[in-house]
Amino acid sequence: MLVVAERLDASADMVVDQLNRRSVPVMRFDSADFPQNISLAADHRPTAPGWEGVLSDERRSVRLGDVRAVYYRRPGRPVIADTVAEPYTTWAQNQADAAMLNLLSALPVRWINNPHHDRIAAHKPQQLVAAARAGLRVPRSIITNDPAAARSFARTVNGPLICKPVLGGRLNTGAERQLMVATHRVDPASFDDGIRLTAHYFQEDVPKKYEVRLVYVDGRMFAGTLLGTSDKARTDWRTDYEHIEYGTAEVPSDVAAAVRRFMASYGIVFGSFDFAVTPDDDWVFFENNPAGTWSWVENRTGLPIAAAHADYLQGNTA
Question: Which residue segments constitute the domains of the chain, with CATH numbers given?
Answer without folding.
Answer: 2-112 (3.40.50), 140-204 (3.30.1490), 207-314 (3.30.470.20)
